[in-house]
Amino acid sequence: MARAISTKRKAVFTVAAWIVALIIFFPILYTIITSFKSETEAIAGFNMIPSGTMESYGAVQDQYNYFKPFMNSVVLSVGSTILALLIAIPAAWSMAFSPTKRTKDILMWMLSTKMMPAVAVLFPMYLIFRNLGLLDSRIGLTVMLTMINLPIVVWMLYTYFREIPSEILEAARMDGASLWNEIIYVLTPMAVPGIASTMLLNIILAWNEAFWTIRLTATDAAPLTAFISSFSSPQGLFWAKLSAASTLAIAPILIMGWFSQKQLVRGLTFGAVK
Amino acid sequence: MGNITLKKVNKSFGETQVIPGIDLDIKEGEFVVFVGPSGCGKSTLLRLIAGLEDTTSGTIEIDGRDVTGEAPAKRGLAMVFQSYALYPHMTVRNNIAFPLKMAKLDPALIDKKVTEAARVLNLTSYLERRPGQLSGGQRQRVAIGRAIVREPSAFLFDEPLSNLDASLRGTMRLEISELHHQLKTTMIYVTHDQVEAMTMADKIVVLNAGNIEQVGSPLELYNKPDNLFVAGFIGSPRMNFASGEIAAPFNAPTIGFRPEHTKLSKESGSWAGVVGVAEHLGSDTFLHVHVDGIGMVTVRTGGDVPVNHGDKVFLTPDAERVHRFDAKGLAIR
Q1: Burial status of residue A153 (CB atoms within 10 A of its CB: 0-12, 13-18, 19 or more)
Q2: d(CA A259, nearest CA chain B) in Å
Q3: Top-level CATH class of B238-332?
Q4: Which of A104, A113, B14, B91 has the maximum number of C-beta atoms within 10 A of its C-beta?
Q5: Do B73 and A190 touch (CB under 8 A)?
Q6: In sequence order, which residues have a C-beta less than 8 Å from that of residue B186 and are 6 or more positions away?
Q7: Nearest chain B Cα to A189, which residue?
Q8: Is the ipTM, as predicted for this complex, more than 0.90?
Q9: Is pLDDT above 90 for B217?
Q10: Is B257 helix (H, G, I), strand (E, B) or coil?
Q11: Cα dihedral B203/B207/B213/B219 (nearest 10)
């Protein structure tokens, strides 16, 4: 009897979970469906079955070069992630293995910068970028994205490093490893799963970042976020083309996320249970 | 080489003083065991010698050289940790070779030394495995291998056997002792287990609350404990203590007598008591006898003793082997 009830409950929860997941996923699904419609179909009202035309994709590729913003997205997200890791690994190492009384405060302070609305510093940042000649440049935006995501990268790595028994690092010290040898040969290889999931998450965050990438770029350094937004106004609203552009923009990161979901889940729950 | 001298070594963590000031001389080739209850500062003392903790004051000398401010690797010591502290992402071979690689030795020489260490420690067939694929005892041997290839002037062991089960602990104890005889290198070994201390040490250092209570050979500590702490800590089962009227005939405020130096009789003796729990070990029996005026007294007798719970018995301590202590707990000799 008890078994029957638990099976029934399980079925109810499973169905509920699927419904919630479908609701969350629906906007993305409908965007993809709309991208395979003609413009007439797209404004005709709700319809889940597209005619399957590729004309919107063709139009997007003809009018705008998809490859350039795509490459910009790749350079910005990967570049800012590498830069962030180079800064964050030593920072997280020192906070995890050589903490002071102020370490927790510094970590909290770093996180608090993420709580401030970005728009609050829009003007100063814009002026700094303009005066340094960094507007619409890959370098400027890479630095910007690094700064934005650095607190999260340091936090995540700090959590992973804390899980590594300090005795192993002490053993390395006894074995004659210098500080850098310790980080390169012992700490980093042991933290590879953690570093990998931090890297993946950071690439996704940088790929999706739309506030600064849209405002600080025009054409040369514009990534896919700017590519999508450029479709929304100048020629009126073309739903099918906008959907095709959006699908092209999210496809790479969606595919990457799909293949690395195991790593991501492990990364995000690492340390939650011992 | 391997003389280690501590001079007034003091360690405080913030306001808390862990080691108030220790003087100790460890001679070349000695097997020295630091023993004491948890929190007595024995591991801290070992870490100070290793250089993993900085001394607050005092000096540490190795072979006459002041190493107080030197980095761990510069001290020429090797350490085996309680948790083995192997590098989980490296094979056994690379684990053992790691200190040699850090010292930038010639790869051919590294290979030779690793092969030799693996032979000595019976690890040859496991060289390509990772630590995760080994048993506890094998992991501990890898940790020892990593220590011996460096040919250090002294080995430091921090409770290396406490993660192993009882029978393996016995085997590893013998292996480490055997290794000491082969290498003849100074070894400093930290444990809370007085059996390990008694069976392995040339010299035992008994620590309590950061202070050295007594330094001596295992039998010296057993036969002539300096104070109540050492008397109670060394020896298993622990020494019985009595004070007041019971101790008065011995001209001391407190006396101590070991379970194995107490005679049991059903007819007559110094003190009458009632048998409580009897622990039969086969070779020995530990009887816990309730004696008025003393409390629970442990008696060690032969394997077959015809006494049961609730029986009335008489106890007599071996007068020659009664330890006397003054009001401060120091031995009267």
Answers
A1: buried
A2: 24
A3: mainly beta
A4: B91
A5: no
A6: B2, B3, B4, B26, B27, B28, B29, B30, B31, B32, B153, B154, B155
A7: B89
A8: no
A9: yes
A10: strand
A11: -30
Sheet holding B323-325, edge to edge: B240-243, B254-257, B323-325, B331-332
Could you tell me the maximum CA-CA distance found in chain B, to the nearest angstrom? 76
DSSP state of A48: S
CB B66 within 8 A of CB B43: no
Domains in chain A, please, with CATH? 2-58 (no CATH), 64-269 (1.10.3720.10)
Tell me whether residues A170 and B81 touch, CB distance under 8 A: yes
Average confidence (pLDDT) over B41-63: 93
Q: Are B218 and B197 in contact (CB under 8 A)?
A: yes
Q: What is the pTM of this model?
A: 0.77
Residue B186 has what pLDDT?
95
Report the alpha-carbon distance of residue B65 to residue B59 in Å, rounded: 10
d(CA B176, CA B166): 15
pLDDT at A271: 46
Put simply, whether A196 touches B (Cβ < 8 Å) is no
pLDDT of A272 > 50? The answer is no
- Quote the CA–CA distance of B220 and B87 in Å, as a whole number: 41
SS3 call for A139: helix
The two three-digit tokens of residue A43, written as one number: 């404004």
C-alpha B323/C-alpha B222 separation (Å) is 11
Comparing CA positions, the residue from A26, A75, A81 lying closest to residue A205 is A81
* Chain B, nearest residue to A171 by Cα: B85
- In order of A47, A102, A174, B15, B105, the CA distances from B157 in angstroms are 73, 34, 12, 28, 25
Cα–Cα distance for residue pair A223/A75, rounded to 1 Å: 9
Q: List beta partners, residue B262.
A: B317
Q: What's the gap between Cα A44 and its chain centre?
A: 34
Cβ separation A170–B146 shorter than 8 A: no
Three-point CA angle B259, B262, B263, nearest 5° = 135
Number of H helices, E strands in chain B: 8, 19
Residue A11 is inside which H or E element, if any? helix A2-35
Protein fold of B4-231: Rossmann fold (3.40.50)
Q: Classify residue A133 by its DSSP letter.
A: T
- What residues does each domain of chain B span? 4-231, 238-332
User: What burial class does residue B269 get, using C-beta atoms within 10 Å of its C-beta: 0-12 exposed, 13-18 middle, 19+ buried?
Assistant: middle
As a whole number of angstroms, the distance between CA A219 and CA A130 comes to: 15
The yes-or-no verdict on residue B266 having pLDDT over 50 is yes
In a mutational test of the A interface, the residue from B15, B44, B47, B98 whose CB has the highest number of chain A CBs within 10 Å is: B98
Rounded mean pLDDT of B265-286? 91
| Closest Cβ–Cβ partner in B78, B87, B103 for A174 | B78
| Model pLDDT for residues A40-97, shown as the tens digit of each residue | 888 888 888 888 888 888 888 877 777 888 899 999 999 999 999 999 998 998 999 8
